Amino acid sequence: MPTSAEIAFTTENARSSMVTLTDAAGAPVDGAMRSDGSSWIPNAQLKYSTRYTAKVAAIGADGKETAKTVTFTTMDRPGGFASVSSQLGDDRVYGVGMPVVVNFGRDVHQDHRANVEKRLFVASEPVQEGVWHWFNGHEVHYRPREYWKAGTKLSIRLATGGLPFGGGSYGAADVTVRASIGDKFVMTIDNATKTMSVTRNDQVVKTMPVSLGKPSAPSSSGNMIVMVKNEWEWFDSSSYGVPVDSTDGYRTRVSWPQRLTWGGQYIHAAPWSVGDQGRRNVSHGCTNISMGNADWLWHQTRIGDPVIVKGTERGLDWGDGWTDWNRSWEEYVKGSALPRPANPTGPSAGPSGAPSDGSAQTGPVRLAAVLAAPRRTW
Q: Could you tell me where the Low complexity compositional bias lies (predicted)?
């Protein structure tokens, strides 16, 4: 049995039910029901090569208990592990557009993605609807329907320790993260006016002139996210196949860079183009602003803040950065490996911490077979 085992059961005519799980030494294992009531999940990965006993007790309308127990032994420690990591860190504050980015050290096989997705839990306070989207076999993102509400608290559990990924690969460990969302801080860049409008909580706080990509290297239009911030970086055209000593080559130390795409588009200070900012586009695709504006902006933004660029000659390529907001909600949900619930009540179907309660009915309690295995959804 994988160490990602869950306890699944069904009842009839039960007023309430309860699951207890103990290891070979009789030590209790903490856990909780999924919010949809489909199974009970341990709060942490089970141990390898260990015998467990699960008991499910159901109480009927007459107060009488019906119980079933099952014992199982978890598998030996496997040889093929895949790392699991998140771009979010504990006690960090992010922008309202921040997706939950999860990376796997090996590709999750197509026929295992639904089962893996069911073990990725995001809880938000206040509750906001959201969904997972697979960009490829080794990267899956989670975003809410709308931007996160300012001040949201996030609790994330990637319950992947011992979970089969396919091809003899298993998740190396569980990952937990607690983070929060800051103010709604949005930058909107308009090529028609060559200006950036900066808003905080929907109020304009600053406007500034910009210079975007010249016709031979246009900036991308679309919905982007600040992914990386550094006080300075070396920008080197040779990393994109353009020799430094060529007509269009360069190697420049750039101040206050904020990365928007993996292809190399940034917002950054460009004192050499101040005379062009607000008038014409002369960059290699980045958003050029003055040294003073770049300094101010860099000290206001967070990773995850949205950047919206409008009216340039090219659109944003899907996957060139955290492009989660560049598709409608209807299109985004198609990237999930799971069917959408008819009435979603929260970010994901995570453990609720509450017992499984049902309406009291007449008749004897029936308790169906107890299963100790990951539940696969197809």
A: 343-367
CATH fit for domain 7-77+350-372, picks 2.60.40, 1.50.10, 2.40.160, 3.40.50: 2.60.40
| CATH code given to domain 185-301 | 2.40.440.10
At 153, list the tokens. Answer: 């608290």
Q: CB–CB of 163/2 below 8 Å? A: yes
Tell me whether residue 268 is one of the annotated catalytic residues.
Answer: yes
Respond yes or no: is residue 109 known to be catalytic.
Answer: no
**Among residues 133, 141, 284, 286, which one is catalytic?**
286
From the candidates 112, 133, 141, 268, which is the catalytic residue? Answer: 268
Supply the DSSP symbol for 32: E
Q: Mean pLDDT per segment of 10 residues, for the chain of length 378 residues?
A: 92 88 96 90 97 93 89 95 97 98 97 97 98 98 98 98 96 98 98 98 98 96 98 77 63 93 97 98 96 98 98 98 98 95 55 40 55 42
Query: Rounded to two decimals, what is the model's pTM?
Result: 0.89
**Any idea where the domains of the chain sit in the sequence?**
7-77+350-372, 81-183+328-335, 185-301
